[in-house]
Specification:
The complex is a heterodimer.
Chain A (H helix, E strand, L loop, with lengths): L2 E5 L2 E3 L5 E8 L8 E6 L5 E7 L7 E2 L7 E6 L4 E6 L8 E7 L11 E5 L2
Parallel strand pairs in A: 2-10
Antiparallel strand pairs in A: 1-3, 3-8, 4-5, 4-9, 5-6, 7-8, 9-10
Chain B lengths: L3 E3 L2 E4 L5 E7 L11 E5 L6 E5 L3 E2 L7 E6 L2 E6 L9 E9 L2 E4 L3 E5 L1
Parallel strand pairs in B: 2-11
Antiparallel strand pairs in B: 1-3, 3-8, 4-5, 4-9, 5-6, 7-8, 9-10, 9-11
Classes of the chains: A mainly beta, B mainly beta.
Amino acid sequence: EVQLVESGGGLVQPGGSLRLSCAASGFTFSSYAMSWVRQAPGKGLEWVSGIPASGDTTYYADSVKGRFTISRDNSENTLYLQMNSLRAEDTAVYYCAKDILTGGYWGQGTLVTVSS
Amino acid sequence: QTVVTQEPSFSVSPGGTVTLTCGLSSGSVSTTYYPSWFQQTPGQAPRTLIYSTNTRSSGVPDRFSGSILGNKAALTITAAQADDESDYYCALYMGSGIWVFGGGTKLTVL
């Protein structure tokens, strides 16, 4: 059974940093692209960042480019999102998703709140 | 800036058929955008229904189908049930690893 478990969310002050993790199991993690998708309170889904199976390149939405960094450790079956220079508008539930292109599974999400 | 458009809301009667659409602010949606559809109920994570235009994800009933209708991607739900009442999102692949989600459609079954 595919499982994606996000962690690392919490309350952070504006300008602060946070690192999210997504632990994957039930599939060959190293064979699939992964994405982070977020959902602000009461709002729709927003694709944030993606990384191919190899991890040799990364992709970002304009809203986070230069502030967020996606990475993966295929030996640990874990996806990461390093979030720096956080803003109030980054407040959201952050989901990791397995390969949207081929019918991705989603984790349950982790809440990030940016507030002073 | 590319905007993916969806109807904000839609309603369907139990047992009825509804078609939700996913368009582009500029241009037409084709299979090369690999349209995907997701269902989300309040407080829950999204669930993938359809990917690559018309492929159902594992466990998704065949009441859900995807297609291209005119210049938009479409999600058709037949024999609508009460528990189909959810938010539905589409996403389009823009190339270079980038996905864009639509704003979502709130479907009411009544």
